[in-house]
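Thread: "does anyone have the structure for this chain?"

Original post by V.I.:
We have the sequence but no experimental structure in hand. Need at least a predicted one for the grant figures.
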Amino acid sequence: MDNSQTEQDLRREAIRRHLTGESRRAICHDLGLSTRWFDKWRAEFEQNPHSDFADRSRAPHHSPHQTSDAVVRAIVSARQVLESAATSETKYGLIGPRVIQSRLADLHLRLPSVATIQRILHSHGLTHPIGKGGDSTYYPWPIAWEVNAIHATDIITRHIRGGEKIENLHTIDHYSHAVFLSQQVDKSSATTCEHLVASWCKIGLPQVEQLDNEGAFCGGHTHPHILGRVVRLCLFCGIEPLFTPFYDAKRNYQIETFHSLWVRGFWNKEEFRNREHVQAEVPTFEHWYHAIYEPPTLNGQTPNEMRRGMRVRRLTLPLARQIPEGRLPIVAGRLHFMRKVEPTGQIELLNETWDVGKKWMGEYVRATINPTKQTLTIWHQVDADTDWRLLKTRQFRLKESVCDVLPPFRRNRARCREYFPG
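Reply from O.Q.:
Generated one for you, tokens below.
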């Protein structure tokens, strides 16, 4: 245990490790603290996921009589209606305190805080506490500057009772939170490409497509120096792939958060018979999500409202027909990799290791490949208020020629290069 850690740091560390799957006993043994201590702070987190884990005054903050009986009854009733899922608007969706708070607003009732609603639900045995992870190290989060600036795509695997496996591919627009969902029989690179093309037709062409290091996305984990099918498709369509760090799912938190919502609001609400049954029900969930659900970070707006009046550039059918069948060429553009520097001072990408320097161990860096220049540049950003700094430039030789982007796929990249120089 690091003796320089404060009690507050230990509480954060314990919960962070709990959320990554470590056992209660292992965490307590490693930190030298009791399981009773752990249980106390896990309960604190479940009641308040935004807790700063500071010591609390023992004095009561609220009188139990401040919330009127009418409001309490309305809260309980709203939760029961949402859980019953008896209408098309409630069949798929969330049942948490923010949704209930919105319903109370529709009834013109005095709005209690989210914490108060959660406490009332708990006192009536109606809670299903969940948590979400936090960060302990600065990470240069990619910030979407407009609709379709950045998309994130990921796969969540689920099994139908009886054994059928469904690969659920989800794409989310970071800015508006609009999504595109497809249900596939496998998660091959070909299937991923089909999903991406369909998503670009439906919600629009992004400037950046954020992906994790799934083999189907990056081209596999055996051959070095290879640009796989998904990378080639993105480059061909004028899109810059951005790969998140290895084994660091929280760096793709927008899509991970959506996965969690989808599981709670859709998958766990129905006993699906087969993939066709899932596909038949998805439109109902999508309607609720886009037209009714208000993601917490959108300040009371739905994804549809965020996109209203926006000019969206989609992959039209004539444009899609220009994508060749079979192996795609390498097209001019850029692809990015967010990586954490290992204790050796190296990073890994495309099944190769690259030296950054032990000075940067533990720091996050961005590696950018430019196929036209055949270079790999490595960048570091100290904090959100500091410009990116170029650390290294290396050769990245390709055995294939690099083609120009077709005119219909060319984009104005000024803002993209402002956020991701290089």
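V.I.: this helps a lot. The chain has 15 helices and 13 strands.
O.Q.: and Residues 7-47 form one domain.
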